[in-house]
Write a structure and sequence with these properties.
- By secondary structure, this protein is mainly β.
- The protein has a single domain, classed as Porin.
- It is built from 1 helix and 14 strands.
- The longest helix has 14 residues.
- The chain is elongated, with a radius of gyration of 19 Å.
């Protein structure tokens, strides 16, 4: 979080002398970034015991098309995230990978500064694969179902030219997966992460 705070401060200073990056119908944005997925700290009650998932950082890619002035449709993609799931009192028991493609409808607020805030709402689909038991579950088959859920998004673009900006943003995603161990369902694991990050955004 300290790194992201420092980046926010530096981008704000750079943006003071830059013009705002306008968003008009037909514009396209490509963003290259780094995002940190931070699952909820709460444990999920399952038949195997309380379980929670750890955090992970990965490179991300966004593409956005403006369907109207200041209104964009964004697609989020990422390098596969990797997480360990901890069973209370037993340590890490599952390792998995996931991809969380997300489609959001976003609105950008116009103003006279070089900083353009925006908000968005959309749908997240999370695909889990390569699940492996570890620790006390080493060698035991583990399965996590894919998830659909609501995604909320907010951020600020700091313009550095007419066609480029630096972005800081935050998302919340509704991600819940039904888990099975040894072929036996044990219940639902709530991940519901906060996703924070930064990106370089180019307009075409």
């Amino acid at each position: 979080m300290k790194t992201l705070s420092a980046l926010t401060l530096s981008t704000a200073l750079v943006a003071l002398a830059a013009p705002a990056m306008a968003q008009s119908k037909g514009d396209m944005l490509l963003g290259l970034g780094l995002h940190w997925v931070i699952p909820t700290d709460d444990y999920s009650a399952t038949a195997a015991g309380p379980i929670r998932v750890d955090d992970n950082v990965r490179p991300t890619l966004t593409f956005e098309y403006f369907i109207a002035d200041r209104v964009g449709l964004e697609v989020l993609a990422a390098w596969p995230f990797e997480h360990d799931a901890e069973l209370l009192g037993a340590g890490d028991v599952v390792k998995t990978k996931h991809l969380p493609p997300t489609v959001s409808l976003q609105y950008y607020f116009t103003n006279n500064s070089s900083m353009t805030p925006f908000v968005g709402v959309g749908v997240n689909y999370t695909h889990f694969w390569d699940e492996k038991g570890q620790g006390v579950l080493a060698g035991v088959p583990v399965s996590l179902d894919d998830s659909w859920g609501v995604a909320l998004h907010a951020g600020i673009d700091f313009a550095i030219s007419d066609n480029a900006s630096l972005r800081t943003d935050i998302r919340w995603m509704d991600i819940d997966t039904k888990a099975s161990v040894g072929g036996v369902p044990i219940g639902s694991v709530s991940i519901d992460p906060i996703v924070v990050g930064a990106a370089y955004v180019m307009k075409f």
